[in-house]
Amino acid sequence: MAALGEPVRLERDICRAIELLEKLQRSGEVPPQKLQALQRVLQSEFCNAVREATVAAFAASEGHSHPRVVELPKTEEGLGFNIMGGKEQNSPIYISRIIPGGIADRHGGLKRGDQLLSVNGVSVEGEHHEKAVELLKAAQGKVKLVVRYTPKVLEEMESRFEKMRSAKRRQQT
Hints:
- There is one protein chain.
- By secondary structure, this protein is of the alpha+beta class.
- The N and C termini lie far apart (about 65 Å).
- The relative contact order is 0.12.
């Protein structure tokens, strides 16, 4: 059992269940075939996938999501998306637009609102916009992106930029 105030972890609970199954097997109180079948299920790829999906669903319900890896082929037509944000704008770097018919659109792995975390293993968290652009332009062959879907932050950032643009327009008139 988790101690009071200690977070409950699904993975730890599955490990604990396997330990208990092993103890039951040694006790001889339950037919070993049944326990072995249950143990195989708990250790299966299916159970692992269910665990990961459960964690992702809980995270998404709270407005967070797990990072995911998206690989895109780098062609002469580019990657098919635009980014915005960066250290100089005091914001993360985001996918602001997926170009219709472009590589990213055809691949389907990226979404508007994805935060760009790394490009080919190089972190762009807390970096200037230009660094991310340089890494994306320099990439050859396949481009491995690590992204996290956080559309609420993108909406807040776009709202802030629009307010700044409106203030500049008022100053110019």
